[in-house]
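[Discussion] Sanity-checking designs against the backbone

I'm trying to build intuition for which residues belong where. Below is a structure token string of 104 positions. I'd appreciate it if someone posts a full sequence so I can compare it with mine line by line.
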């Protein structure tokens, strides 16, 4: 797993260098961002799988699971949007890009 996000971070760094933004982030910072992003994806997928399992349990038990599923999905989507690691990374990139361009 560690090798995967390190390679992902190197790919991002290479792309930033090609675009002329190679000095905005160190490789260690990009690796940290990638690790947080992967952990976030795993956490959100685990919660979604849990919602599906509970919905199936309600269906097997004989009660109507649609009320649980629809409510849980609404809260899951709100959680997904409000805690997006990708959005935080993009905001940090924009902040550093603006501060570096103001220094020039």
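Best answer:
Here's mine. Compare freely.
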């Amino acid at each position: 797993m560690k090798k995967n996000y390190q390679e992902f971070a190197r790919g991002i760094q290479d792309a930033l260098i090609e675009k002329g933004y190679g000095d905005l982030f160190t490789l260690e910072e990009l690796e940290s961002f990638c690790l947080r992003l992967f952990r976030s994806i795993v956490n959100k997928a685990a919660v979604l799988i849990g919602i599906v399992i509970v919905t199936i349990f309600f269906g097997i038990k004989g009660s109507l699971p649609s009320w649980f599923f629809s409510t849980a999905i609404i809260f899951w989507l709100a959680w997904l949007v409000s805690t997006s690691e990708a959005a935080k990374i993009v905001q940090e990139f924009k902040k550093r890009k603006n501060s570096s361009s103001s220094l020039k």
